[in-house]
Amino acid sequence: MLASRSWLSRPLHERSTRLFLGVLIAALAVVSLLNLALPAGHPLHVSTYTVTLLGKYLCYALLAVAVDLVWGYLGILSLGHGAFFALGGYAMGMYLMRQIGDRGVYGDPVLPDFMVFLDWQSLPWYWHGFDMAWFALLTVLLAPGLLALVFGFLAFRSRVTGVYLSIITQALTFALMLAFFRNEMGFGGNNGLTDFKELLGFDLTADATRLWLFLATGMALALGYVLCRAIVASKLGRVCVATRDAEARTRFLGYRVERFQLFVFVVSAMLAGVAGALYVPQVGIINPGEFSPIFSIEIVLWVALGGRGTLYGAVIGALLVNYAKTVFTGVMPEAWLFALGGLFVLVTVLLPKGIAGLLAYRRPRRADPDPSTTPGEASA
Amino acid sequence: MNFLTSLADRDRVFDFLVPVDSPVDVRHGPILYLEDVTVSFDGFRAIDRLNLTIDDGELRCIIGPNGAGKTTMMDIITGKTRPDTGQVWFGSRHNLLTMNEPAIASLGIGRKFQKPTTFEALTVFENLELAMAADKRILPTLTARTTGEIRARIEEVMTTIGLVELRHRPAGILSHGQKQWLEIGMLLMQRPRLLLVDEPVAGMTEQEMERTAELLTGLAGQQSVVVVEHDMGFVRSIARTVTVLHQGSVLAEGSMNQVSMDPRVVEVYLGAEADEEVA
Amino acid sequence: MRMIRALVPGLLLWLLVGLVPSAQAQTPGQDPAGQALLEALDTRSYADKGEAIAALVASGDERTRRWLEALLAGKLQRQEDTGRFIVVLENRGRHWPVVDALSFEAAGEMSRRELDRIGINNALRGQLQSTLAVLDLRVDDVGARREAARELLGNIEAAMLPPLQALVADEADGEVKRLLAQAIAIHRLEQGDAAAVEGLAGSLNPEARAALSAAARSDDAALAEAASGALADIEQKLKLNRGVETLYFGLSLGSVLVLAAIGLAITFGVMGVINMAHGELMMLGAYTTWGMQQLLPGQPGLALILAIPAGFLVAALAGIAIERSVIQFLKGRPLETLLATFGVSLILQQLVRTLISPLNRTVVSPEWMSGSLMINEGLSLTLNRLFVLGFALLVFAGLMLVMRRTRLGLEVRAVTQNRAMARSMGIRATRVDILTFALGSGVAGLAGVALSQLTNVGPNLGQNYIIDSFMVVVFGGVGNLWGTLVAGLSLGVINQVLEPWAGAVLAKILVLVFIILFIQKRPRGLFPQKGRAAEG
């Protein structure tokens, strides 16, 4: 056995993953090039505005991958993944708020503007540490991860599954939304966190920073994709699929199903948190709206449209729906909700396997763990 | 990366290949022991003061009309249903009532469901791979590899159940009989001490039934097998000892001949058949 | 005695006036009776003035109140030259705007020099005040009498006591009597009469409570003790009141939840269908009410009653449309149904925004639903909430009847328990599905009609209730209508109990968290379905 052939590198030998990574990296390179090399007036020039917009889409794509991991492979329809996304976003937002320092409207060196406005005297305890980037980044992973751990532990232990789980995940994000709307929570209430100035010392309004953020998001998507791919291609991934299709049977085989569910759920929540953290500096604001149940359901639609249980389908779906949203809301905002609503109906009724299902229609089934095709086997 | 690699290199995945001493204490004879077990749903007693003892290595058939409590009994042994009263012991050491399904499964009790339950999206190969006795914790599962030995074992079982050609087909496309076989194969992969087999030959052809009978009788001796079956011909062909369940408790026990002579059994069966005709 | 003496000439005058057609008297010449009444006031003797006032009251002239008020304020005056009586509107500056005292029509401005004020002394002031108070207590309308009596609480002058006491004896209405007795007791208490405490025991009136707490601080030890005892008693009663009020609000909120959830319980419990558009079906019901009121302007009550069947029909038809166009294709895929119906909910919302308006519409409450039911002085229950509570219980009872006593109910239960078996016994499962869904949707429409009486009717109406209603269904146990009722009402009450302590938003969050935790403990709700069928 070769040491390098670890479970994590396994997807790198899959054709579909290589294709995905190739397209992604090429797209990143082309966008950067068109942004940097061409003058602003050139017809092919990609403006920084567009770069940021694309960066936002990529955040959504990562979020969709996270949802697909639990929905497509574990059969858990989470209607609360927006909560994990928002928690990651808030962690990043708190760091960015602390970076503002005394450049805020009220010029207080420590307190963010909204706290000065509310006449708070000192920083709440949970805001400490967010002036350090490493701490904030750790929180980006830990806050959603912990929430998923506690929530998932309770839910999976008592075997809450199916629609029940969907409904209580929805209640979870709804409760969090209400909580974050409260000024007393110390997260800026209704307005959320905004007016960010710089990230790791780089000016957030600068074109270069924006491009770097876009590239970082692209890399995060690539890494997240490979991680998820590695999980689903492992035996653990097959246990997930087994759980999805016949939970009781999996238990009788001796797998502690609830632990597998919890593990994957927490990984997925952390990925959603990372997506949120990358989202916030690009759009420049985080507010309780991200906790709204509608947003969480929308994420599920992206995955459904792209085709669940494929991961790349989630990416395609997220990009398509959000591009359509940008176009629609610009041209005829009235029609957007009709289009979105219609999409929900059409995809579920007519296209249950999504776009990926259409793509795979003529292709043979994916490679099985066969000695001749799977690298792990070949070395054995 | 190195950390993860090191995880992969640790050989605990292969633990199952090392013959481990069974933790199940069968020195006193019985491998499964049910005493005074009662369970009711909404006032209806599905199991009523049931007593049952299965010896190590025994092949036992359990018959009984519909609603006699056969499936519920399986549910109790595998930890799916908790009885209201009574005791269930595996060997003389393990109180099954204190354990959940995965723990009971890891002890070495395998179960085939009445309705064949396979993982339809996974291939035959993958179904068997998942069923195999292995370290079933999260990280070992994540880093597990399909080694040559594993492959050989799976091949062996696939040959036994006659699904070699279909190894890369998803289980969902198999015929009913093939699914039954696959599920039996999954049981074999588990290498359990006790197999609970619920209606193994439903939907099988005559030939398939013969092979199943062969297989099950072949297993007995090394492993204990409890078969719940409706098909009397099949029961007759494999049974040494037969237990008749009726209304949640044991009506009769003995050899097939003894049992079929028992007037109470005859009455129950004739009565049940008459009922079915009316329905 | 004095009263009677004062009344006799008044009575005579009244007889006189009765002979003259008094209507529409414009000038002193045309209204001699009025003029005569006022003339009597213009005398030097205060005693005579007092009698004149009594005569005025006895005359029953409808202008009496305004005259006396003007007299009390020193605004009833007489033009020196003409002898005409006027009422000063504004006595500032040199020239005052005035109205004629008989016709109360504007009479231009007059210089203060040409006017003579009809003066009063302190004794007369007292008499006037009590007379005025008593005046309102003499009217025939019981409601007005009660109102007047309530006004008197804490506003009694010593001079008013004798006529009031006389009135208490004559009063026929118990409530007026009680109020007057209390008003007198408050006055006595203020005078330091410890015996008055008894009259106020158990009163929930804030004036009585203020008087008692003032008395409780007095130097008179006996009085203070008696008053504090009575106060403690009242506090006890108030606590009970608040408890009842919280319970009422809780039940009211709960009844809304039950209405919203019960239709969902049917579709979710019976068909296993997650209908995310349920809230929008409620919205349709609410808009139907609004539409009815547009069709029948000026008759909000009739419109509301008609809206009940109309709302049911509209929502039920919409439900059938949803079932036929979407849900029937998603049998056995509850999660997909959830997504598809969510799409439908978005479309319905946007449809209303586009076709009607994105803004909220007001639905008028008919008169018989506004106002409140007064239980006691500290507690009144708003009628509209009471109606909605009753309506919710009616709808629940109706549904129970449908499920228990009709063929449809039987078939629905059969299909729920074993679809294949039901089919093989000749039940047309598809038809049952359609009817069940129509029923559940129709009930949502009814909920919308009821909601239109409590909240704004807008495109987001449904969204605000959908999560709550799912919580109720899950909490109560799927497929159990009683569970939905109990869960809805208890969640409403829990919410209201928490609210004063935690605030509205936090209370809601706590309830959500409570349910999330509850589901962990009892994944199948308060009243789970038992048996092998539910084990799967």
TrEMBL record, chain A:
Phylogenetic classification of the source organism: Bacteria, Pseudomonadati, Pseudomonadota, Gammaproteobacteria, Oceanospirillales
Subcellular location per the Swiss-Prot or TrEMBL entry: Cell inner membrane
Gene Ontology CC entries for this record: plasma membrane
InterPro entries the UniProt entry points to: ABC_transp_permease, ABC_transptr_urea_perm_UrtC, LivM-like
Membrane topology field: Multi-pass membrane protein
Alphabetically ordered keywords of this record: Cell membrane, Membrane, Transmembrane, Transmembrane helix
Protein name, per record: Urea ABC transporter permease subunit UrtC
Regions crossing the membrane: 49-67, 74-97, 132-156, 163-181, 211-228, 260-279, 299-323, 335-361
GO molecular function: branched-chain amino acid transmembrane transporter activity
Automatic annotation (TrEMBL), chain B:
Pfam family, one: ABC_tran
Keyword presence, Nucleotide-binding: yes
Signal peptide from the UniProt entry: none
Domain ABC transporter: 32-272
SUPFAM superfamilies: P-loop containing nucleoside triphosphate hydrolases
Matches recorded under PANTHER family: CONSERVED COMPONENT OF ABC TRANSPORTER FOR NATURAL AMINO ACIDS-RELATED (PTHR45772), HIGH-AFFINITY BRANCHED-CHAIN AMINO ACID TRANSPORT ATP-BINDING PROTEIN (PTHR45772:SF8)
Name of the featured protein: Urea ABC transporter ATP-binding protein UrtD
Organism per entry: Halomonas nitroreducens
